[in-house]
Every structure is written in structure tokens, then in C-alpha cells.
Design a protein that fits this description.
The protein is an alpha+beta fold. The protein has a single domain (2-290), classed as 3-Layer(aba) Sandwich (Beta-lactamase). Helices cover 43% and strands 14% of the residues. It has helices at 2-13, 58-71, 79-90, 94-105, 115-124, 127-134, 157-162, 174-185, 192-202, 208-213, 267-271, 275-290, and strands at 24-30, 42-46, 203-204, 232-240, 243-251, 258-265. It has a 6-stranded antiparallel beta sheet with strand order 2-1-6-5-4-3, sandwiched between helices. Strand 4 (232-240) and strand 5 (243-251) form a beta hairpin. Helix 1 (2-13) packs antiparallel against helix 12 (275-290), helix 2 (58-71) runs antiparallel to helix 9 and helix 3 (79-90) packs across helix 4. The longest helix has 16 residues, at 275-290.
Length: 291
């Protein structure tokens, strides 16, 4: 799988993408067709431990954290919370993400803070990171999930929290993302009912007519676009001026279940709407051959 993955990257790089292997990270895992919950899968990766800005992929982590908080009775469920979760994951709403982060950490945005209030605010904002580290998974070493996501950018205390040179930006690896997505899809994190709820949020239709009705469908220009008709698909995409990412689990006809996480960085890669579909298409074909 590793040699096939590198050969694919070389091939795609030659199609007008010089330097591709320096600005892409991939985690690719195949599972037993009969029972993916019974095994950890077999996989390969490329730069999968490289910390990168995750864009909206971080919303997957926040959705899982909400389930963990609900199970511990740290939060009380509500209609508004469920609507915010749906909007955050299915529509990738930054406004909904802002509320989710407020609920997870007990902090709010606003003007700059100073002294003890600022120290307490920063400490409180680390609650998701503390939870991630409590899992004791080696893939999560060094990741940072403590920031909101923005349409235009942070201001006030949020801007201060990034640091003068953005050193405190969110950061994830494809390996960490893959481990968390795998745990959700195999019902192995928080609780099986919690995983089922997150799976429902991640579920997406590849139907062309449904995609045409929603230009922000997180399929076109991402991994789902490259998959065959009849594929069952769960995903969370991320897109901004310097990144185009996707994290997906899918079950294509006549093939083993597969997990694929792809992060790309740089303005050229962010604008490249054909790259992720091409990767998914070729690895899906390989998956069929190996099944």
C-alpha cells in the first residue's frame, strides 16, 4: 500500500502539480469487509505525522467532544445544541462552531483581557486539548484544538490567543484525524450510541441532484466526488485560502470499507478542485483490486 500510494502521488504530481509531495499528507486504511469493528485495519501514509492547520476538519473533533461532555454531564442537551452540532458538521457553519466552543470550554469571545482574567480564560480554553491528551493515543501527541473557526478572522481576545505569529493556531495530523474518525466509525469512542450520533452527522449523499441543490455540499472538489455510484459515505471537509482537506470513511460496492484522510496546504492546492477526487478515485480502484 505504501509503494502504491507513493507511485500515485508521483503520477498526480506529473499532471501539473510540481512539489505536490511536499505539501500533502495522507492516511489511507482498509478494513475487513465483514466486520471493520473487529480490527484496526491495514494502511499506509504519507507525511501523516506532519502537523498542519486543519481548517474545518477540527469540527469533527469538537462534535466528538460534545458527546464526551454530554456523557459526563458537563453539558445539558438542548434543541439549540443539537441544531448547532448539525450546522457545524453538515453545513460547516463557523457561527455554530463558535457556540460549540463556548459550550465546550465555558469561554466567550470579546475584547482583549488582561491579568488574572486573561490567564484563567486561556487555561479554560484548553479543555478540548486536555480531553484529547487524556485518551493517551500516540497519534494525538502535539495536536492543538483550542480555536474557533472564522469567516474573516479573529478579533479581540481571540486574536490575542493565536499569538503574535499564529503559533497557537489549531493543528492536526492526518494520522490523528484518522484515529479519531476510525474510533467513531467503529463505535469505539465515548460510547456506541454517541458514535452513532456523530456518524449520522457525517453521513453524506453522493447523489448528483442533491449536490446540485447545495453548492456547499462538501462532496464536489473533495474525496466524495471521485467515488463510484452506490458508495456509502461519511466525511468532514475543510477549505480555506491555504488548505483543502477531507476526512472520509466509505464503503464502495464490491470493496472493503476504507478510511482516507487527505490534507493539502498552499494556495495552489487550495484552488485545486480536482486533486482530492483524483486521489479518492485511484485509491478506490486499488481497494477493489485488493478486496
Amino acid at each position: 500500500m505504501a509503494s502504491e500510494l507513493e507511485a500515485l502521488l508521483d503520477q498526480i504530481a506529473k499532471e501539473g502539480r510540481p512539489g505536490l509531495k511536499n505539501n500533502i499528507a495522507i492516511s489511507w486504511i482498509r478494513y475487513e469487509k465483514t466486520n471493520p469493528e473487529a480490527c484496526s485495519g491495514i494502511g499506509a501514509g504519507w507525511s501523516e505525522e506532519k502537523l498542519l492547520y486543519p481548517a474545518s476538519i477540527v469540527k469533527l473533533i469538537y462534535a466528538i467532544a460534545i458527546e464526551a461532555w454530554l456523557q459526563k454531564d458537563i453539558l445539558t442537551d438542548s434543541v439549540e445544541l443539537q441544531q448547532a452540532l448539525k450546522d457545524m458538521v453538515k453545513e460547516s457553519s463557523n457561527d455554530a462552531t463558535s457556540l460549540i466552543m463556548d459550550l465546550l470550554t465555558g469561554t466567550t469571545s470579546g475584547p482583549s483581557l488582561h491579568g488574572e482574567r486573561w490567564h484563567a480564560w486561556q487555561k479554560q480554553r484548553q479543555q478540548v486539548n486536555k480531553w484529547l491528551q487524556s485518551l493517551n493515543w500516540p497519534e494525538l501527541a502535539g495536536v492543538n484544538c483550542c480555536q474557533k473557526t472564522w469567516n474573516d478572522g479573529p478579533f479581540g481576545r481571540e486574536r490575542d490567543f493565536y499569538g503574535a505569529t499564529n503559533t497557537n493556531r489549531n493543528s492536526l495530523t492526518t494520522a490523528a484525524t484518522a484515529r479519531l474518525l476510525e474510533a467513531v466509525m467503529t463505535n469505539d469512542l465515548v460510547s456506541p450510541p454517541a458514535c452513532k450520533r456523530v456518524q449520522k452527522l457525517l453521513s453524506r449523499s453522493l447523489d448528483v441532484f442533491q449536490r446540485e441543490a447545495n453548492p456547499e455540499n462538501q462532496i464536489d472538489g473533495f474525496l466524495g466526488e471521485g467515488l463510484p455510484k452506490g458508495t456509502r459515505f461519511w466525511s468532514k471537509a475543510g477549505l480555506m485560502s491555504q488548505a483543502r482537506h477531507d476526512a472520509a470513511w466509505f464503503c464502495s460496492p464490491k470493496a472493503n470499507p476504507m478510511l482516507l484522510v487527505v490534507f493539502t496546504q498552499g494556495r495552489e492546492r487550495a484552488k485545486d478542485a480536482s486533486l482530492l477526487p483524483s486521489i479518492a478515485r485511484e485509491l478506490s480502484k486499488l481497494n477493489v483490486q485488493m478486496s
